[in-house]
Amino acid sequence: MLEIKNLHAVAGNREILRGVDLSVKEGETCVLFGPNGSGKSTLLSAIMGYSTSTITEGQIIFKGVDITHLPVDERAKMGIGMMMQRPPNVTGVKLGDLIRTTADEDCAEEVLSEASDFRMSGFLDRDINVGFSGGEIKRSELLQLTAQRPDFLMLDEPESGVDLQSIDLIGNKVHDLLYDQTKCRSGGPKHVSALVITHTGQILDYIGADKAYVMGEGQIRCTGRPTDLLNTIRKNGYGECDSCQHIVTIE
Ligand SMILES: Nc1ncnc2c1ncn2[C@@H]1O[C@H](COP(=O)(O)OP(=O)(O)OP(=O)(O)O)[C@@H](O)[C@H]1O
Ligand SMILES: [Mg+2]
Description:
There is one protein chain. By secondary structure, this protein is α/β, with parallel strands linked by helices. The chain has a single domain (2-242), classed as Rossmann fold (3-Layer(aba) Sandwich). It is built from seven helices and twelve strands. The protein has helices spanning 40-48, 72-78, 95-102, 108-117, 134-148, 164-178, 226-236, and strands at residues 2-11, 14-24, 29-33, 54-62, 65-66, 80-83, 90-94, 127-128, 152-156, 193-197, 211-216, 219-224. The strands form three sheets. It has a six-stranded mixed sheet, with helices on both faces. Strands 2-1-4-5 form a four-stranded antiparallel sheet, with helices on one face. Residues 11-12, 14, 16, 34, 36-42, 52, 85 line the site of adenosine-5'-triphosphate.
């Protein structure tokens, strides 16, 4: 589904991605761990093509096509969707209008009706993200993804800043998106592929992750089973991931 080969990217005269190699197979859910500032969000933005960094070397292959230099809208049309860590405010564009524009014609009303289950009905007439709280932004991003129904889902810290009661709402919605159990679907259920950034691992209670990568200073340092890696990081921090010691690697 996705293959990243030796990806290098520069921002503000600094090399942020320093030769990233990573792959996500069809139907696979991969997790990306790594300390603050290690380049995780930069990597997701580079894959989406919504990037403040400039790719200087390497390739991003999606569904067999080299998308390294494709514009963001083309990537979205190919089936890539992303929940950003800090999405921009979009003044003058209502959330409901964006959903009506993004969703398939016969799907829009169903997605809009899902807004109430997702405690978002009062937000459809508001400018996207303007004045939204941190948790409301997360729910809004997920509702937008429900309209887009991507084949490859990237989530940047979906549970971060979400209150304990709303974690269930977010977790179950992510699960529905991954298994494509959204109310509006054509062609039957399918298992969407995903790359999910998390620090706490809370989202793993809702999704069956197959594989985890640990990023450190712009490179993939380690690969392993998500729970093994999370337990190691919790116990010993990220230092051990540099050499993959004591971690059951699966590749
Ligand atoms: N335009 C820029 N100029 C200089 N440094 C930048 C620029 N853009 C990003 N960076 C730096 O790149 C590094 C990686 O940022 P990124 O947002 O990818 O980290 P992250 O792994 O997602 O961290 P976090 O877990 O805190 O979200 C950071 O140190 C950040 O300050
Ligand atoms: Mg980040």
